[in-house]
Amino acid sequence: MNTAAQSMGILSFEAAYEVVREHCRKILLSGKVQSEEVPLLQSLGRVLAESTVADRDFPPFPRATRDGFAIRAQDLKNGATTLRVVGQVRAGDTYDLPVASGEAVEIMTGAAVPSGADAVVMVEYTERKISEINHNDHEETQRKAGADEIDDDRILEIDGVEKRAQENKRVEDLVEILRSASVGENIVPAGPRPRQDRSYCRAEPD
């Protein structure tokens, strides 16, 4: 510290740190924790005097921990690998319809997992496809979705291929799952807290 600051009575960082430590030590030794009630807007820089426990789960829904597709794990156990994409859910939004067998919902990290789905498959283990059904001869073809149909810069921002059906054709948006999935995979239940081993347990009030 320069001499001008010292002459004004300004403490060095080390000296100020020791003053604060000594003051805290005296408070702890006294056995009395001083506290006061202040409006929330005046609480900046203060420390809570006691624990605050939420009266509900937060967030109040199971959420996805990865970008991918919310599915029913049993579908994969039954041998199904290609599922029909029926919707999407972004973080902050909800998908109100239950996921039925054979269906998948595109989902973003942090988004609410739709009812009926019990696993999320990471997008890296999937491949988008398009199914075209010709109403004239009823022939069905299946192919990979092209870049003009699914924008790679908006992986989880698909407006729905079905809306772009061509004349005399019905187009379905599909996803091929390239690996198996277990129940609860990439899903955090409502209201849990992480353990040190990064598994989850339900938070209980003290």
Structure description:
This protein has 206 residues and is α+β, with helices and mostly antiparallel strands. The chain contains three helices and eleven strands, in the order ααββαβββββββββ. It has a seven-stranded mixed β-sheet with strand order 5-2-4-3-8-6-7. Strands 1-9 form a two-stranded antiparallel ribbon. Strands 10-11 form a two-stranded antiparallel ribbon. A hairpin with a 5-residue loop joins β10 and β11. The radius of gyration is 28 Å and the shape is elongated. The relative contact order is 0.16.
Binned, the helix content reads 10-25%
| Cα gyration radius (Å) | 28 Å
Distance between the termini: 47 Å
Total number of strands: 11
Order of helices and strands: HHEEHEEEEEEEEE
Which strand order do you get reading across the main beta sheet? 5-2-4-3-8-6-7
Contiguous low-pLDDT stretches (5 residues minimum) are 151-160
- Quaternary state reads single chain
